[in-house]
Amino acid sequence: MLSDMLLVAKKEIRIGFRNPWAYSFLILFTVFSLSLLLINARYEVSGYSGVTGSMLSLILYLLPLMSLFLGSFSLTAEKEEGSWNLLSTYPLGTSSFILGKYIGLSVVLLTILFFGYGVMGLASGMAGQNFEINTYLLFLFFSCGLVLLFLTLALWIGSLAKNRWQALTVSVMVWFFTIIAWPTLLIAGLGLFPYLWIKPLLTLLTLLNPAEFVRLFVVIKLGGGSVLGPEYYQWVNWIQGSSGSLLFLLLCFFWLLFSLTCVCWIWERRRARA
What we know:
Elements: H1 2-18, H2 20-42, H3 50-80, H4 83-87, H5 94-127, H6 133-160, H7 164-180, H8 182-190, H9 195-208, H10 210-221, H11 233-240, H12 244-273
């Protein structure tokens, strides 16, 4: 199983670095990272402020969309090009295939990410305008969390979509719902329930949106918990606690495990029907 998974991952890495979409996102994210450096040149980037909040929002717009496109297109390409029909005739387990895909795509996306942040850090060092190290690492952690969690959503989309156009449409819908429309829908939806239900529903809905709980973690770690409002006091308390980071990593792990298990189940059902 491990050897099969590694073979699929290596194949995905080779394809990923030949994909023009990957290089388009690489250039886009590098330019984006340098634009963050220009912001840093004018303002001090340390802790949570209006500048860091704007930077977090800009990252939140770009990285999930990048992950959704590259991940969903990878699986739908297997269907459209017929390569999965060939692979399914071999003794290749569904879990090995999906996990290999996830690992390979993660390597490609994280390479884009680290390249962009590396260029930003190098240019910042040469200009003598360094980020505050804790803020820089939290931004990097925030970006990695978004990429890895939204990649599982991309695999969900790719396993359900029939072709690239359908994957593109659903990816944009998921991105719009989880990133752009989320605050408005949350306020409108929670307003329909009694006040005592708001906090538990808010916690449940936040756990369903990876962009939201990663954003909350980073904002609180940057010292911006007071701007979130009383509904998030419980989140502030447990994230600022001694075991807050560990609990958050466990949450991300179980979120990834559940999502990848569901993707494997969907792909196995489609394989059985083929």
